[in-house]
Amino acid sequence: MRVLIVENEFAELKNVFEAASLYYFESKLQYDVCGLSQHLKDYIGVTYYDYIFVDIDLSVNSAKDGYGVIFDLIYDYGVSSGNIIVMTGHNKIHEELKIKGLPALQILSKPIDMDEVYYALNGGNEL
Question: How many alpha carbons fall within 13 Å on the CB side of residue 107?
């Protein structure tokens, strides 16, 4: 399985994804990290991803926030909303997605752990 992680502070999540890969995916979970929204085009269309994790709060150096990235993924790159997983610390994320005209998406509340990563990549099915 291959995933793209759109996150500017990936160092804080690296151990979570490494542990999930080791424990649940026999070290076969492959991932790329895109730290800035303006680099998204370097990944999408070049490599196929089963799922894309998007942090809603990207760096001020990023041209777009996570909402803009999600919009581009769905409407410019044709990524299915079922393949997008949002990572956030915001508790009103569902309302914000709706206000911005985006579909309901799978949400992981930060901080996340390896079990939540597995759960998300397993289509939301229980362990």
Answer: 16
